[in-house]
């Protein structure tokens, strides 16, 4: 599926064929949660997820992905917009797209984050009290 922004020259696509792994890797290297995630791990994570690319023309400038069983539960992760494209409401638009996506809109959606709580709360997210984190398996 594809979504075209009504006022800005951006679009969102859930087509995995359009994803630009080098761009995604660079974006995630600038994050606090995935700065050390190897590119091969990122590529594998794309294969098992519902992914959304944010594009300005043909250039990918944002990303988010969802791990889901498609029936009851989804995990939203790796939500990021290139710093040069922030401040335009693109994060809000990305959230509208993801929570309305027909594959997951009927599921409970979890998210773990240290920031942007106000943004996520606007879309029905509540702050979690517990979450078990596992280290990245760099071998497999």
UniProtKB/TrEMBL annotation:
Annotated N-acetyltransferase domain residues: 10-140
UniProt-listed InterPro entries: Acetyltransferase_Butenolide (IPR053144), Acyl_CoA_acyltransferase (IPR016181), GNAT_dom (IPR000182)
Gene3D superfamilies tied to this protein: 3.40.630.30
PANTHER family, alphabetized: FAMILY N-ACETYLTRANSFERASE, PUTATIVE (AFU_ORTHOLOGUE AFUA_6G03350)-RELATED
Protein name per its UniProtKB record: GCN5 family acetyltransferase
Organism lineage: Bacteria, Bacillati, Bacillota, Bacilli, Bacillales
């Amino acid at each position: 599926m594809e979504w075209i922004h009504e006022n800005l020259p951006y679009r969102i696509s859930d087509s995995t064929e359009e994803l630009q792994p080098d761009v995604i890797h660079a974006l995630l290297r600038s994050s606090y949660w995935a700065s050390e995630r190897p590119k091969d791990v990122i590529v594998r994570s794309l294969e098992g997820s519902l992914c959304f690319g944010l594009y300005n023309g043909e250039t990918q400038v944002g990303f988010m992905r969802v791990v889901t069983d498609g029936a009851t539960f989804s995990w939203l992760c790796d939500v990021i917009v290139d710093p040069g494209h922030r401040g335009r409401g693109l994060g809000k638009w990305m959230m509208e797209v993801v929570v309305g996506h027909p594959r997951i809109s009927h599921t409970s959606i979890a998210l773990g984050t240290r920031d942007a709580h106000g943004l996520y709360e606007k879309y029905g997210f509540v702050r979690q009290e517990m979450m078990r984190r596992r280290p990245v398996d760099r071998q497999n």
